[in-house]
């Protein structure tokens, strides 16, 4: 199994285009195709904050649902957008407002089309991907060893938000334990959610959210080679959004 796993895109379509080209994909009929048959995988948070969330959703829907030629696992922003599209009461904030603005600029017909596609993408996705004979797990915010194989509410919260304590930092963001530091499992865990300036390998885990939407980079982890490839972001750099593990 040869995969290229891409970190949190958050609507940064141009960087997705550049990164896939850098790792050998050719864009045909508006989707990336690798001449050697490699497949793409996505750690979630396709939308919100960036400039072209709906275009990113369209590409991933075509790859993962229409072509069944890629792997997608949802993130917390994907979950919130899904609830918005279902008509649930959600706060249109923390980035969702950018996706909603794009959506509201469409015609009613176009709105129905992208809403249907995203909901199908979300509903068909597993809570986390278990691949390559259970040697690889892709989970948006990671997964604790004890939760592997489970899909209950505790696991769902962990996979979407990380190992949260229930406390909040002064800026309102949740306090999260560094679960990867204590991971001792056999499967390789590839995740995102928490922006870091450089892809972070610790134990048998990789965090590949390098904060593209905050002016960092968009990163891919090539599997099984475990080669990290990235492209710079076109967005303004927001240093306080990046977590330090010093």
How does the SSE layout of this entry go?
Layout: E1 3-6, H1 13-22, E2 26-28, E3 31-33, E4 39-42, H2 53-66, E5 70-72, H3 76-86, H4 96-104, H5 108-124, E6 129-131, E7 136-138, H6 153-161, E8 163-168, E9 174-177, E10 188-191, E11 200-202, E12 205-207, E13 217-223, E14 227-232
Parallel strand pairs: 1-4, 4-5, 7-10, 10-12
Antiparallel strand pairs: 1-13, 2-3, 6-7, 8-9, 11-12, 13-14
Helix pairs in contact: 2-5, 3-5
Folded structure, characterized:
It contains six helices and 14 strands. It has helices spanning 13-22, 53-66, 76-86, 96-104, 108-124, 153-161, and strands at 3-6, 26-28, 31-33, 39-42, 70-72, 129-131, 136-138, 163-168, 174-177, 188-191, 200-202, 205-207, 217-223, 227-232. The relative contact order is 0.17. Strand 8 and strand 9 form a beta hairpin. It has a five-stranded mixed beta sheet. By secondary structure, the protein is α/β, with parallel strands linked by helices. Helix 2 packs across helix 5 (108-124).
